[in-house]
Design a protein that fits this description.
Two copies of one chain form a homodimer.
Chain A (H helix, E strand, L loop, with lengths): L3 H16 L6 H8 L3 H7 L3 H12 L3 H9 L7 H27 L2 H14 L5 H15 L9 H19 L7 H14 L5
């Protein structure tokens, strides 16, 4: 059987998926983990800490993808590299957006999360920064236009992936891979006629 | 004094801002509006209907901006037209994202909202479609590259604005107008060297 802490994090992930963040109380999480609330609080000080552990430990799809991208400067096509990252980003956001969005509906939870992020230096802006670094490196070796703003380019691509995951919760959409291909192609060519 | 229905919608907006969507119960909303819950239910069948009224009636910044944009085909600069829309979009998303995000944390609320959207034909994808239509019209008259995908371009710009509003809830960011300028400039020029 998994160690208690892992069991609690896994149970929390399950409860969030089933009941939503709003109803994912420590009581429900303890019940799903088959432990007491007292034991739960031996491993985590607050509910926010459990949610952060779910985000960091159960939904790790994005960090490997941004690290892989950083190792690809000057290799393959930029289109291929960006498409792979965008695919991972949409998958990651689809899995995490209920958790991330749900926090916005609860100011006290949001505040606790802001403080944890400020203390850790981490947060949802970090992958955008890593994507911008990759684009800046490609720019340095001449594969990206000197006119382009790498931070803006990263914000456009990540933003589209994030918004896509949000929309998917509310309306029916076409397949992701078609979108990813067109997002990257349009970002590379730009709108101004050549 | 405002008619009861307006007072309820205004009270709901206030309660959502103060307590978050999670704690914005009909009991709290009725108390803030100075009416009984019974009276509240004479005007709205469900809490979802009140939230939808808040979205549609109290946060109307985006529709006028997309309509203005549609009237600007072939006029001014594309950069100027897109910057104005992006500015309105960020402002709109900043005001609405707690409400929109909060719904993702509550599957029953989200489901009610999905059904209302499906019945109305409206939803958060509509402004993206209107932006895509504007870009397609500019493409038709030769001001946008024939290679560009208007739907992808609209998804990139709106997505960046939406993600920005989300990040602003969690981490400190620079000024919006600088970002908007760079987003539009990068979308127009593209990343591929000319």
């Amino acid at each position: 059987m998994a160690p208690t802490r892992d069991r609690i994090v896994g149970a929390a992930e399950h409860v969030i998926q089933e009941l939503g963040l709003v109803r994912a109380t420590t009581k429900e999480i303890a019940r799903a983990a088959g432990c007491s609330e007292a034991l739960l609080y031996k491993h985590f000080r607050t509910k926010e800490e459990i949610f952060l552990a779910v985000l960091l430990e159960r939904m790790p799809a994005l960090r490997p993808a941004t690290l892989r991208l950083g190792a690809r400067v000057g290799q393959g096509t930029i289109a291929g590299n960006l498409e792979e990252l965008a695919g991972s980003a949409i998958e990651f956001f689809r899995r995490t957006i209920s958790l991330a969005g749900g926090m916005l509906g609860d100011p006290s939870l949001l505040n606790g999360f802001r403080q944890m992020l400020a203390a850790s230096g981490g947060g949802p802006h970090v992958p955008v920064t890593l994507l911008a670094s990759y684009i800046r490196e490609e720019q340095r070796i001449g594969r990206v236009s000197q006119d382009a703003d790498p931070d803006a380019a990263a914000a456009l691509l990540f933003g589209a992936c994030f918004h896509r995951a949000f929309l998917a919760n509310l309306v029916e959409l076409g397949p992701d891979d078609v979108l990813v291909h067109e997002l990257v192609r349009t970002l590379l060519t730009g709108l101004t006629p050549r």
